[in-house]
Amino acid sequence: MPNKNGSGAPVAGRRKFLKTAGLTGAAAVATVAMPQISRAQTTTLRLQTSWPATDIFTEMAQQYIERVNSMAGGRLKIDLLHGGAVVHPFQVFDGVSGGQIDMAHTVTVYWYGKHKAASLFGTGPVFGFNANEGLGWIYNGGGKELFDELQTKIMKVNIKSFFAMPMPTQPLGWFKKEVKSAADMKGLKYRTVGLAADLFQAMGLAVAQLPGGEIVPAMERGVIDAFEFNNPTSDRRFGAQNVAKNYMLGSHHQATEYFEIMINRTKFEGLAKEQQAIIQYSAEAASSANEWKAMDQYSKDLQELISKEKVNVVRTPQDVFDTQIKAWDGLIAQLGSDPFMKKVMDSQKEWVRRVVYYNTLNATDYVGAFNHHFPGVLKKA
Questions:
Q1: Is residue 1 part of a domain?
Q2: What is the spatial distance between Cα 212 and Cα 49, in angstroms, rounded to a whole number?
Q3: What is the CATH number of the domain that holds 111?
Q4: What is the DSSP string of 69-105?
């Protein structure tokens, strides 16, 4: 017989059912709304750069650190140390591998003396790819696997690395007299690093390898006659314009380079998986931020060098490019005698043949468009 509410179920039973169902629904909603809080242990890492505190590269390292710290939600924190704080700027490789520092923000060319293959992952031979295309090779063309092989199987060092920031072509550099041909460079005492040192030695220069902070003092003392570092902003900040007034843009000596963000491998493997992911993917995020910052700041400082510092900014003559590419041919033949280095260069050339073919054939005439809208400007630069 139906009860007063018209249902066949007892009133008390129905009320119990609704109450239970309501609690179950609320509990389910609470479960869905509950944030998934990481159980990872809070970790603080010390990262030393290879750069002076005032260098724009330090700001780019900070961009990486900001991304790690922001995404980690307080459970992973990186502290920034400037070049030389714990180890010499050229010694961060040993510092990270040995555990004196946890991480470093550097470039592979700074430790190429331990294995010349390091320079192939930044500042290697010019096969035709720019730095963006080079990062494409690292991330999608087999580069990162080859680099891991170099670290773990050949050198057997306790380091894990990630790459960031496709650097623009590095200028030929700063000279007391404008370079009109490759002959003008013979006999000069010149600062560069990595395989570029071998390249310029093959061109008849005497090479000194110095960190950025030591370049201008060396120029003032006459230890070097000319130098390159990296870009208009870094160069201007350490006072290149005060010791030379001719700035030659464009070169084959370091056509591509990237930051290497290294971490002690044991330390990395001891992190929680989400912390490892933040360390890794923050490098990719910072890569874009670094590149966009460079576009803005490098171009501003180049104009300031021209207008305020009265620097003679000119394009490197074709004769220098031609001499450099021939010198690279000789170095490539020498480097290729090492099976691993040959494997790396063959991998790069395979990538270049496919990717650069597409990009070059497909790219619009940017120079023509620039000259149309800004006639005569490139000649003035």
A1: no
A2: 12
A3: 3.40.190.170
A4: HHHHTTSEEEEEE-TTSSS-GGGHHHHHHHTSSSEEE
The answer to whether residue 211 scores a pLDDT higher than 90 is no
> Would you say 267 and 45 are in contact if contact means Cβ atoms under 8 Å apart?
yes
CA–CA separation, 90 and 21 (whole Å): 67
**Is 271 contained in some domain?**
yes
Q: Which domain holds residue 164?
A: 43-168+257-295
Residue 4: the pLDDT is 42
d(C-alpha 355, C-alpha 133), whole Å: 8
pTM of the model: 0.86
Q: What percent of the chain has pLDDT over 70?
A: 89
> Are 128 and 349 spatial neighbours (Cβ–Cβ below 8 Å)?
no
Kindly state the DSSP code that residue 255 receives in the 8-state scheme. Answer: S
Query: What is the C-alpha separation between 23 and 39, in angstroms, rounded?
Result: 28
Number of separate domains in the chain: 1
pLDDT at 9 over 90: no
Give a yes or no: residue 62 inside a domain: yes
Check if the beta carbon of residue 351 is closer than 8 Å to that of residue 129: yes
Question: Do the domain assignments include residue 61?
Answer: yes
